[in-house]
Amino acid sequence: xxxxxxxxxxxxxxxxxxxxxxxxxxxxxxxxxxxxxxxxxxxxxxxxxxxxxxxxxxxxxxxxxxxxxxxxxxxxxxxxxxxxxxxxxxxxxxxxxxxxxxxxxxxxxxxxxxxxxxxxxxxxxxxxxxxxxxxxxxxxxxxxxxxxxxxxxxxxxxxxxxxxxxxxxxxxxxxxxxxxxxxxxxxxxxxxxxxxxxxxxxxxxxxxxxxxxxxxxxxxxxxxxxxxxxxxxxxxxxxxxxxxxxxxxxxxxxxxxxxxxxxxxxxxxxxxxxxxxx
Length: 278
Known about the structure:
Helices cover 42% and strands 17% of the residues. The chain is α/β, with parallel strands linked by helices. The longest helix is centred in the middle third of the chain and has 18 residues, at 139-156. The chain starts with a helix and ends with a helix.
């Protein structure tokens, strides 16, 4: 399992189970009795991002939260993190759980992963929360990614200034409206998660990180539930790809990157209302 309590504090909380997803061990939690809703988090976060979601949606869903490999209580699988790799991990998890037509919810890299899965198999619905991969990977984007790679490499090397910079990054840019206790847990794990952050951001510059083509291939309804103040993955840069969806709903909510954390009540109401129309 993950070696440090800072990472475990972000992940699936007791009671959780560990599922063998085709050779990859994943920690998951299951709450509720309704439609299966499988929730996938951003890099360096964990299943605990969705800790309050089950309370917000009541009995409408069975909320299944997952720790990606190397996060929370899921052991590292020895593979480099990327949306493409995570899509394969998620596919094997769905097979292991035997879920029929679940709703998939993904944030950031988790959104890019669930989009690929939804384009390849039958699911009940797709919820994309500030999903990565919906903008062209051009020269400017690669430059910005390179700067972020350098930033997280500093954390990986243990640079003293990284801790304060990472706090600023999360407080002002990524999760400005998140409950303080939850944001502090993420900040506390900054040095520990820096290697995975660096590797994931390196993957964002690759051609396989571009997931725009998958949007039009999804046959189920899509809810784009976007935190509207996102400076890294703004809706304005993702909108063109989103408009290629066959059946979509757009909800712009409060927050910097994760509306289900930052605007939890409205997110829960939006999700429930959308699912009732499926």
